[in-house]
Structure formats: C-alpha cells, structure tokens
Amino acid sequence: MTAKTTGLAAKCCAFLLTGGLLTMLAPSPAAAAVPEYTTAEAGNPFVDGWYADPDIAVYDGAYWVFPTTSKPYDQQTHLDAFSSTDLVHWTKHSEILTKSSIPWAERAMWAPAPIERDGKYYLYFAANDIQNDSQLGGIGVAVADRPEGPYEDAIGRPLISAFHNGAQPIDQDVFIDDDGQAYMYYGGWGHANVVKLNPDMTSLGTFADGSTFKEITPADYVEGPQMFKKGGKYYLMWSEGGWTGPDYSVSYAISDSPTGPFEKIDKVLAQDPAVAKGSGHNSVVNVPGTDIWYIFYHRRPLGETDGNHRQLAYDRMYFRPDGTIRRIEMKVRDNFADGNALGWKTYGGSWAAAGGRYRAGRSLGGKALLDTDFADFTYDADVTPTSGGGDAGLVFRATRPGTGVDGYSGYYAGIGPGGKVVLGRANDSWTPLGTARMPIAPGSTHRLRVTAVGPSIKVYVDDLLTPKISVTDDTYRSGANGVRVFDTAASFDNVAISPAQ
C-alpha cells in the first residue's frame, strides 16, 4: 500500500477504511512496523548524501523513499531509493532508474513519485526541464515488478509533454482515491493541474465535462504538489519560494473533493534559522493502522551555500481536532541507533557511532559539532565518561571551530569521573565560569542538561530540577551545539536540543 492510498487494498495486506483512516483487518507477516517518533530520533538527515524532493510509499511492510539525486542539473542522470522497516535503519538501492532507460530523457530526471497498482510498481518523474511546447520532455512514467526496480520506460514518450493552464510539466504526485480512481497533481511555474489516470496508470482520462487538465492553483503556489486524504478530506500541500533560497517552504489546503477548490490555509513548514534552511518539496506518510503521520522533505544545512547541497529529513506531523495541521517543528535529536553520525563534524580526536552511542577516544579537546545556530535552548544528552582524568560534555553557542584543546569560541559544560562538574567558555584559551562536585564513577551514565536563555546559563546533572551550576554570562549569544572530551574517553547518547519555551 502506498502512502498516498487511503482506501485501496494492497498486496499482502487488508485494510478497512474508517472515516478516511486505515484500520487493519488481519495481521500480515509483512505488516509495517509502528514507529512512533517525534522526529528522526536517530538524527536528520536520515540518509547520507545530497538528495532532494523525497516521495514516500509503503510497500509490503517497508517504507520506501524515492528522492532526486541533488547534483548540478545535467548530472541528475539516475534515481536512487532507500527502504526501511522502522524509519531508522535504511538500505540504499542505487540507480533504480537511469537516463539510459529513458531514450527521450536527453538531460536530467528528478522528483520521482512512486505508487503500486495490481502488482506493478510505477515511478513518475520529470525530465528535460522543458521551457516551451516545442522542446522534448515533461512527465514520464516507468514501471517495474519490484519496488527496487529496475524501472523501464512504460510508454516510450512523456505522459505529459506540453504546458497546460500555464503549468510546466514537472513535480508530479500520484494519488489513488478510495473508489480506485487515480489522479496526478503536477505543475511548475506557479501553476498546478490535476489529471485523471486511467486504470492502466500510463494514460490520461477525462473529467465529466470532457476536459483532461483542470487547474487547481492555490494562492502562493510555486511547485511540488502533494496529495493525501485524512478523515474524508483531501489535503493538498505545495512548495513556495525559490528552491535555492532560504524562504523555500510548504503550505497546504483542504477540500471536500480531489479536484478542489483548494484555498490556502497556512504555511506548515518553513526554515528554522537554528536548524536548517530551504525546507520544502515534501511528501507525507501515514503509518498503516495508526493515526501517526510524518512529513518527509529536503532542507539545506545552515553552513551550505551550494543550492544543490540538500539533505533528506522527516518530522512528525500533528493535526488539530478540526483537521488543520500544526506547524512542523524541525526537532534536533540523535540516539545513534542507526549506527552512523550523519550531520556531525569532528575536530580532533577519534569518533565513531557504534552500539547505539557516539564514542570518543581519549584526547585533549576533541569535539564533534552539529550545524546548528541556537541562541536560547534546552540541550540534553546522556554522557558516559569511561576512562581518563578529565571530563566530557556539551559544547554550545560555538563558532570558529577548529582543532586544539580550546579551539573554538563558545561554552562547554562537562562531567568527569573524579566527581566534578565544570562550566566555562573558550576562545583559544579557557575561562572557568563555575564548578560543582557530585559522585561520578567511571563508566556511569549521567543525564547532562544545559539551559541557556539570554545571559542565564544553567547546568543540570541527573536532577533536572535543581541546577548544579548557574551563572550569568553574555559573551556568546548563539552558535553550534556539540560534544567534547578533555583527557578522557567517553560516549554520548540521546542528544536532544529544543528552543527555549
């Protein structure tokens, strides 16, 4: 069953539609896991590499993500996919569709849209970025017998090869309604259309009035439409702003009909200057048999200036009682359960994600930082000093990172096996700000929390109600978050950073 199918029976699974949601009738040996997270708990990005425009489907108990390979345009000559049964551990499937399989795709292909019907797996894609009707290109469709392909051109030509109602034929999304009717939503250049797909999924149908292309453009629409259904209502999402800029974002509308009208309700996903920029071109998945929903999207790290340097992320999507969507919060979490440390950049020392922890060898000031820029926040992590006479802990409001004992500008709070708690600031030299004592045995794990609001900085260890250290210092107001060791080996787990409430 695909993420975009809310009432259609799927291979190996049986579901009952109840108020637009899915209720499982009978267990299946391939039933999808029930991941109930607030975000990618093992960290965003959840896969390695530069990717964009993710679309997601659920096939036989596995979640499949199909993204654009985010390279300079004419280098986007193939599509990869990623699969997972738990949204944590992902398997890469390389080159499931290549330009060589699509003879008319003379340039690039991007924005894949997956769906399954009658045992066949379809992948719709945009190719060639046509600028007028005299050019060859548009929206194509490939088909395979398995989710991982290989996919082959289904019709030997574009399915949609011309502009209609001003919509450039790109950025397609396919949705099968509860009555079995399939629709495609697509369009660039600020215009969106919907078309019917015939049961063969490779030809266009007509509406009751005899038309083939219906314009459904909502206010502020730019590109990237996405359709899903919940509670009998049709949700259309789309991207606004320029895809290379920081204002790229996602808005949505709700309608009683798959063909609209769609009136904009609100912006639901936008950049967070503390976490990432350029967030957009999304898809949505409902965990089968639950009311758990996730939004998948791409975003650009804060420190990146190359427009193609985009990464894949997902976060939980929550609905209000009236069916409207709450604003998405780009949470920062990492429990290292996926065995990698994507998003972390190291400066000195030896670092490895293993056994569900981020492990640091003993060094003098080795650190690993996330590309964040928090000012006021709560920062938590489980810290386990394992050997050595120094300390291990959290770096925050850090800039100018480099190697060396105090090779950064920012703050550090740490604990050591000798029973000490320390807080200080660095700027190529160390300035202590506070110390405390408590029992800390080598190899014991402690919950370390730092809160920073303006000049007020507090450090908590285990007891998260009473700070061990509380100081006032306004030397540094914002910067990156990270972890650090000084003359000790340590491991870190369950990292979580949230803006101050």
TrEMBL record:
Tree of life domain: Bacteria
One GO term of the biological process aspect: xylan catabolic process
GO molecular function terms noted in the UniProt entry: hydrolase activity, hydrolyzing O-glycosyl compounds
Active site (record annotation): 53, 223
Signal peptide range: 1-32
CDD domains: GH43_XlnD-like
Gene3D superfamilies xrefs: Exo-inulinase, domain 1 (2.60.120.560), Glycosyl hydrolase domain, family 43 (2.115.10.20)
Segments forming domain 3-keto-alpha-glucoside-1,2-lyase/3-keto-2-hydroxy-glucal hydratase: 340-497
Keywords: Carbohydrate metabolism, Glycosidase, Hydrolase, Polysaccharide degradation, Signal, Xylan degradation
Pfam family, one: Glyco_hydro_43
Site description Important for catalytic activity, responsible for pKa modulation of the active site Glu and correct orientation of both the proton donor and substrate, residues in chain: 171
Family note: Belongs to the glycosyl hydrolase 43 family.
UniProt cross-references to PANTHER family, sorted A to Z: ENDO-1,4-BETA-XYLANASE (PTHR43772), PUTATIVE (AFU_ORTHOLOGUE AFUA_2G04480)-RELATED (PTHR43772:SF2)
Name the record gives this protein: GH43 family beta-xylosidase
Organism: Streptomyces griseoloalbus
